[in-house]
Design brief:
327 residues; 3 strands; DNA polymerase, domain 1; mainly alpha
């Protein structure tokens, strides 16, 4: 929850712009707010505008355009150095904050015309370490599905359907909890989800997904479902309290089933199931990389290409298949 009263007016107007014009998701706007709050708290210390060194006790409500005009590129670099040396933030974390700062200053310059010079115009993104995604093997994926189908679990139909959708469709956590009943086309076996940036895309459902959804719908509560601001009555997946299932509940379900399957919940996560779905489709389904990009909802093909590098055996086999290999 964003506490707008703690924000400067310019930050709140930027958040409104991000929501209404840039069409950013609530999670993205929340991250913008967190990043800018941290940045301006640092600026107050950096500019000696406060004697307080505990970020939790620093107010930024007094930040105005006069203060912002004094910020130079070196000051932003000092903030990034603080994140590196004091907070020990990873490059990916710093890269997100760089993106937020860049978008914010672009807003002040181009949309509000409040700044003559943009200090972030030459701000570079920290170089990211390229890491191969962690994912479950095919055998481990089967173990996870088997564990989720355990009838000793009173929510087995729901939990099995959740695991099945993650492993077959590669959807994000936010996409799964946001599924409404009307989003499912049972005749054409497809599903519409809202992804990053509030972008809608279609996910086609295979037989396993359709069976799992139908099995769950037979036991999904029909009476007493809460009518609330989360539109629980429209939701596909419900909690035991008969409200739309939340992120934390789904994460708990996944961790529980991983443990039941004999897999390490600390090594894998909900997002790792997304990696698993993409990897299995690419390795075993011979899926075209562009089709995989569309399925996962990636904006850039370079994001999807990480899955083309996860199987060294495929690379080795490609070399061995060269017609010149045996000469």
């Amino acid at each position: 929850m964003i506490n707008r009263e703690e924000n400067p007016e310019l930050v709140n107007s930027f958040l409104d712009f991000s929501t209404t014009i840039l069409n950013k998701s609530p999670n993205s706007v929340k991250e913008y707010n967190y990043d800018l709050s941290m940045f301006f708290k640092f600026i107050k210390i950096h500019f000696k505008m406060t004697d307080e060194d505990d970020f939790n006790n620093i107010s930024i409500s007094d930040i105005n355009i006069d203060t912002i005009e004094k910020i130079k590129l070196d000051d932003i670099h000092a903030f990034l150095a603080y994140l590196t040396n004091v907070n020990h933030c990873k490059a990916s974390t710093r890269a997100r904050k760089v993106s937020t700062i860049r978008i914010f200053f672009n807003y002040l310059c181009q949309e509000k015309n409040l700044l003559k010079d943009n200090p972030a115009v030459n701000l570079k993104t920290p170089k990211l370490d390229k890491r191969l995604p962690k994912y479950l093997s095919l055998d481990d994926s089967k173990k996870l599905l088997y564990a989720a189908s355990n009838e000793d679990n009173r929510n087995c139909e729901r939990d099995y359907a959740i695991i099945t959708l993650f492993l077959n469709c590669g959807m994000r956590l936010s996409e799964l909890v946001g599924i409404n009943l009307k989003d499912i086309d049972f005749e054409d076996c497809k599903l519409n989800v809202i992804g990053k940036g509030n972008k809608e895309r279609t996910i086609y459902l295979n037989k396993a997904c359709m069976n799992a959804i139908n099995d769950y719908l037979r036991v999904r509560p029909k009476e007493g479902v809460q009518q609330d601001k989360k539109f629980s009555e429209k939701a596909l997946f419900l909690s035991e309290r008969k409200t739309r299932i939340g992120n934390r509940t789904v994460q708990y379900i996944v961790n529980k089933e991983l443990y039941q399957a004999g897999l390490d919940p600390n090594k894998y996560s909900v997002h790792k199931l997304r990696h698993t779905a993409a990897t299995l489709m690419y390795q075993y389904g011979q899926v075209d990389i562009r089709a995989l990009q569309e399925l996962l909802g990636h904006k850039s093909i370079s994001t999807t290409e990480i899955y083309t590098h996860v199987n060294n055996d495929q690379v080795r086999n490609a070399v061995e298949s060269n017609p010149l290999a045996n000469l």
